[in-house]
Amino acid sequence: MATLADSFLADLDELSDNEAEIPEENKIDAADMEEDIDGDLADLESLNYDDLDSVSKLQKTHRYIDVMQKVEEALQKGSEVSIQGVDLEDDPEYQLIVECNALSVDIENEIVIIHNFIRDKYRLKFPELESLVNHPIDYARVVKKIGNEVDLTLVDLEGLLPSAIIMVVSVTASTTTGKPLPEEVLNKTIDACDRALELDSSKKKVLDFVESRMGYIAPNVSAIVGSAVAAKLMGTAGGLSALAKMPACNVQLLGAKKKNLAGFSTATSQFRVGYIEQTEIFQTTPPPLRMRACRLLAAKSTLAARVDSIRGDPTGNTGKFFKDEILKKIEKWQEPPPAKQPKPLPVPDSEPKKKRGGRRLRKMKERYAITDMRKLANRMQFGIPEESSLGDGLGEGYGMLGQAGSGKLRVSAGQSKLAAKVAKKFKEKHYGSSGATSGLTSSLAFTPVQGIELSNPQAYAHQLGSGTQSTYFSETGTFSKIKKT
Predict the structure, then answer these.
(1) Is 266 helix (H, G, I), strand (E, B) or coil?
(2) Angle value at C-alpha 385, between 381 and 388, nearest 5 degrees
(3) pLDDT at 329
(4) Which of 219, 249, 260, 437 has the most crowded Cβ, counting Cβ within 10 A?
(5) Three-class SS state of 394
């Protein structure tokens, strides 16, 4: 019987036999794959992250140079209206605008890459600066302005950053743990800052060119948000067709920046708002209604972009109609609420209202009816002081209670009408024998309390007396005193 070790050895022998049967073509492919992997690793190793030219390559490309040259020539010629008969897709200016939109996106990505390069180099000098200044262009300007300066009081940052951020940067720089950069690293950092600022100026030229042609390319969007904001929206979205396919909630966020308030209040800051914040409608709207206006502007801009993408209205009347609708809605939001109208009194009814009656209502009225004692307590005789619980008119007054001479404050409560009615009905029932004189009469009586009762009707005859005898006056009683006249 083979052991476990012998079975393992047999499996290894089979594997070695299968490797020997691999065809030569597969061996060649595997060799090529190994060569490709080695080549990629060699390229990664040859990429020097200390060299700015190996990281940023956009400015040296033929496409960047060609597009920027065409943009400068178009800006020098000025805005000329294109031929209306030519299809929009075949218009060379529209093709240039599409290329400009794509190039603006590439420029933004390139600025981000250069910003990371500057942060990595300048982190040794001022590590806290990247958390205080988030925008790449502002960061590049501040780094170029500060350089290796240790005392920031000697550096004028006015105009580059808000005053609140300048104060925070100055205080943080006095307690930073960074050290001055070597001369070579500082030169590379300053060169990267210059390149980022140059790319930013190129991006502005591209946006200026697109803005000058927006009246022809996207007339409806320009009518709502303006040519400048429409050009920025198109450039960030990647073209008019991409802007038309984008939902309104994303159009609202195009161009939004991460704002660092440095611990200050967020009451007046607008979050989740992009380029739409720069529109005239947004700026003239009261602050409490600006977020609603921003959502409305984004929605209408998306509809206008969809109209422009299919050339539905080259005159821009649709955009003007949308703008008027937006202004009317904002005015409607600011209207005060309608005044509360006085409610007229109902017409008095001449006939008495129908009220529910019956046994239940009568019982309820008797239950909550005012008693005779309470009636007496609520009454007062003229000229006679009432008795009170604390005396001398203090405490709860008793009214006419106890003023009849009895010396008591309790009044015997009379029998209620309902109880009297029930007692009357109970008396009317005959539980004894009838008045018949036949031989079947009996002295047995059936009562609901004692059941069968044997009674003698003649037992009380001597007590009642005859019919002529009075039952009110006593038979033995006499008048105690008779006054003679």
Answers:
(1) coil
(2) 115
(3) 94
(4) 219
(5) strand
The β-bridge partners of 445 are 453
How wide is the angle at C-alpha 463 spanned by C-alphas 457 and 465, nearest 5°? 100
Contact yes or no for 234/94 (Cβ under 8 A) = no
| Amino acid at position 402, single letter | G
And the tokens for 464? 């009642």
Q: In sequence order, what are the residues at sequence separation of 6 or more whose Cβ sits closer than 8 angstroms to the Cβ of residue 322? A: 220, 223, 224, 300, 303, 304
CA of 435: how far to CAs of 432, 446, 462, 474, in Å?
9, 15, 20, 31
What is the band of 172 on the pLDDT scale with cuts at 50, 70, 90? Answer: confident
d(Cα 424, Cα 404) in Å, to the nearest integer? 32
Residue written as tokens 């979050």? 271
pLDDT at 33: 44
Residues linked to residue 161 through DSSP beta bridges, in sequence order: 158
Tokens representing residue 120 in the block:
């990595």
Angle at CA 388, nearest 5°, toward 387 and 389? 135
Instruction: Provide the pLDDT for residue 299.
Output: 93
CA distance 136 to 58: 17
- CA–CA separation, 160 vs 145, rounded Å? 9
pLDDT tops 70 at residue 123: yes
